Amino acid sequence: MKPENFETIAIRTQVERSLHKEHSSPIYLTSSYKFDDAEEMRALFANEKEGNVYSRYANPNTSEFIEKMCLLEGAEDGFATATGMAAIFTTFGAFLKNGDHIVSSRSVFGSTHQLLTNVFSKWGVTFDYADLDKPEDWEGLIKPNTKMIFVETPSNPGIDIIDLKFLGDLAKKHNQLLVVDNCFATPYLQQPIALGAHISIHSATKYIDGQGRVLGGVILGRKDLITEVMNFARHSGPSLSPFNAWILSKSLETLAVRMDRHCENALKVAEYLESHPKIKLVKYPFLPSHPQYEIAKKQMKQGGGIVTIVVEGGVEGASKFMDGLKMFSISANLADTRSIATHPATSTHSKLTEEERNIVGIEQGSIRLSIGLEHINDILADIEQALA
């Protein structure tokens, strides 16, 4: 029987069992592999035969993780990286060259912004930012040398959303490569490839692991595109370790049930804070007040686990609220089982200028709440006392 449902695929997909008939996949902590003879070694290195040659290229644990992610997201192939940023860097490095141009969503993660402004700019790659809430502006930014459209949706930390079907059609019209950072949604809530994206990227450090333990990333897409990614990655070396791949593959077994609880808790937090007098703004995809609520309902299964708020009183108000939290962790991470509060202006997006932050909706009073799996009554009680 071939499983068809998300939860079953995530649980039952695994590498071939060894002679020990283990129920759970073992960890293959090996850097290299033995060949039966000289001819097999030659054939493997010539790509005439499938198999493992070196763990910088592939490993049974990374292969299992990639296979699961491909099945869950509807991709033909994938490559696993050491971190989420390694996945973004590798994707840019594989497809962009001197003279190329990117159209990117303005609201991107701080390190992605640094790649565009300070790293790839040194190598002759230019970019233009477009606003997620102004889809009418995107087509006008495409130039003859534009090679890629890159987008985060929902964005970090503004929780802005754009219609992926619209971007897919736009990319097809102009023969562009559409790359989507799908980290906040996970394949459980959103499948960009089915909506027209060519590549979907995840920081597996976040919800894929979901417990704040290991770093990882993954690039998913058409087989010919992933071949380009592999050709770049095999020599630049951003490979995922076998141990982390094993953790991430096991974590996928609980992704669906975890995301259901994250989303349930986050919606209740968003609804509670929307009417609170000390909160200026609440952004959550499945709140009817969200500017792109209808788009979110169309392309996402649920709203995700991140709620972004703006506290009255600017940075002082934000600091007072965060320092008043007793259960929430103050951390730059997100997507943990534990609820986390982050002040983006002084942490994850501190390298942006204040003007750049304001343009993407990051105010001094903005706080990103990663809602965990604790009991909702305890989450709300902590928020309530911190706002008192």
Describe this structure as you would to a colleague.
- Pathway: Amino-acid biosynthesis; L-methionine biosynthesis via de novo pathway; L-homocysteine from O-succinyl-L-homoserine: step 1/1.
- It catalyses: O-succinyl-L-homoserine + hydrogen sulfide = L-homocysteine + succinate.
- The chain is an alpha/beta fold and 388 residues long.
- It folds into 2 domains: 6-251, Aspartate Aminotransferase, domain 2; 255-387, Aspartate Aminotransferase, domain 1.
- It has helices spanning 6-12, 38-45, 60-73, 84-95, 110-119, 164-173, 186-189, 223-236, 242-252, 255-274, 293-299, 314-324, 354-359, 376-387; strands at residues 77-81, 101-105, 126-130, 146-152, 177-181, 199-203, 217-221, 279-283, 306-311, 329-330, 340-342, 366-370.
- Helix 3 (60-73) packs parallel to helix 9, helix 4 packs across helix 8 (223-236) and helix 12 crosses helix 14.
- The N and C termini lie far apart (55 Å).
